[in-house]
Amino acid sequence: MIKAGNVVRCAHTSVLLLMAVSLVACSGDSTTEPGDSGPFYTVGGTVTGVTSGGILSISNRVNQQLDNQKNRMSLQLNTAYIFSRTVVSGDTYQVVVEADPLNQRCTVSNGSGLAVGNVSNVNIHCITPPQYSVGGNVAGLNGALTLSINGGEQVTISADSAYTFPTSLISGTDYLVSVYNEPAN
After folding, report:
1. Domain positions in the chain
2. Reduced to 3 states, what is the DSSP secondary structure of residue 2?
3. Beta carbons within 8 Å of 50's beta carbon, 6+ residues apart
4. With the CA atoms of 145, 147, 168 and 106 taken in that order, what torsion angle do they form, in degrees rounded to the nearest 10?
5. Which of 59-63, 125-129, 176-180 has the lowest mean pLDDT?
6. Would you say 44 and 119 are in contact if contact means Cβ atoms under 8 Å apart?
7. Which residues pair with 127 in a beta bridge?
8. What's the pLDDT band for 120 if we cut at 50, 70, 90?
9. CA distance 41 to 118
10. Is 47 exposed, middle or buried (0-12, 13-18, 19+ CB in 10 A)?
11. CATH homologous superfamily for 40-127?
């Protein structure tokens, strides 16, 4: 004879078993693409030199394509990293810096290759290059002259003198100094 308590326990156990089976069925490797056949490998490495508060954005272009957000990541610390999207054996990978941390420049070593196993040596090193002020001398000025750098920051000069823009630029940064307002005379 089946007791009511046994039926409830059996139903509860069945529900839990069904939920577990459903979760296992849904837990397929979400880091691969439909139709991919393995083996699958990870791509990663280490990041060094990022200064406090800096954010480094990197991506992995699999077979020269950046096909989803799983191929991008932002890192704020000097750390080991692994992209969440795996690559299929024989795929090419290319790790690139999408955006350097503020006032830093980063380079990638061992950044591309053919995946024949897990890749763990794509290293990114960031440095803080020297910064330089931009300025010059004005001669023959009658009146006030306003100059701008890269269409933004401005300095106004009212007599023959030297000038310097307040913000320094990282070595190697392109810049353009232009006349924002000419003297009236």
Report:
1. 40-127, 131-181
2. coil
3. 56, 75, 76, 77, 78, 101, 104, 106, 126
4. -170
5. 59-63
6. yes
7. 105
8. very high
9. 5
10. buried
11. Immunoglobulins (2.60.40.10)
Residue with tokens 């941390």: 101
Q: Hunting for tokens 């699958």 — which residue is that?
A: 40
For residue 170, count CB atoms less than 10 angstroms from its CB and return exposed for 0-12, middle for 13-18, buried for 19 or more.
Answer: middle
H helix intervals, the chain: 4-26
pTM, two decimal places: 0.60
Report the run of H or E that residue 56 belongs to, with start and end.
strand 56-60
Check: CB of residue 43 under 8 Å from CB of residue 124. Answer: no
Rounded distance between C-alpha atoms, residue 72 and residue 27, angstroms: 22
The encoded tokens of residue 50 equal 């990022």
Residues 185/144, Cβ–Cβ less than 8 Å: no
Distance CA 78, CA 124 (A): 9
Q: Give the residue carrying structure tokens 């763990």.
A: 120
